[in-house]
Design brief:
- The structure is a single chain.
- By secondary structure, the chain is mainly beta.
- It has helices spanning 28-32, 79-92, and strands at 11-13, 35-43, 45-49, 53-57, 64-72, 100-108, 120-127.
- A hairpin with a 3-residue loop joins strand 3 and strand 4.
- The longest helix has 14 residues, at 79-92.
- The chain is globular, with a radius of gyration of 14 Å.
């Protein structure tokens, strides 16, 4: 993993920030503009439906949340662009008031450009500690509830 959070240039998104989310949330398209999205998974986690999607971390690597690894495209690798995307995502997730953010290791699940299946990337993920855990999404995939 990256030694410093400033080195991280990836998000792992699993809900309404996914480019393939069909709820058409008003923040989805602006967040994904000028970004590359690659299918990925997050082991040792479960997905729940509360007001918004929420993940819970577990000790079982067979518990998997399906999502996307998202990073700036080749024309937008500069620090200013990244910082704007991080601020934008923080605003959408109401970080640190509602969602928290931490670094996880996301695993690529498709071959796309330079990204290959099983490649691992340190990524920011947003999560909440306090949410309703009654509605588990068994598939681990927000787009396949």
């Amino acid at each position: 993993m990256a030694n410093n959070n400033k080195d991280i240039r990836y998000f792992f998104v699993y809900g309404t920030l996914r480019e393939d989310d069909e709820q058409n949330s008003p923040w989805r398209d602006p967040f994904n503009k000028d970004m590359i999205s690659v299918k990925a998974k997050l082991p040792s986690s479960k997905l729940y439906c509360d007001t918004y999607p929420c993940i819970d971390f577990t000790d079982d690597p067979n518990d998997v949340v399906v999502g996307c690894l998202v990073t700036p495209d080749e024309d937008h690798k500069d620090d200013e662009f990244w910082n704007e995307k991080l601020i934008s995502a923080d605003k959408v997730e109401d970080y640190p008031n509602w969602y928290n953010r931490k670094v996880v290791e996301a695993i690529v699940t498709e071959n796309k450009g330079k990204y290959k299946v099983d490649d691992k990337f340190p990524s920011f993920v947003y999560y909440r500690e306090d949410f309703n855990r009654e509605d588990l999404i068994e598939s681990g995939d927000w787009t396949n509830k």
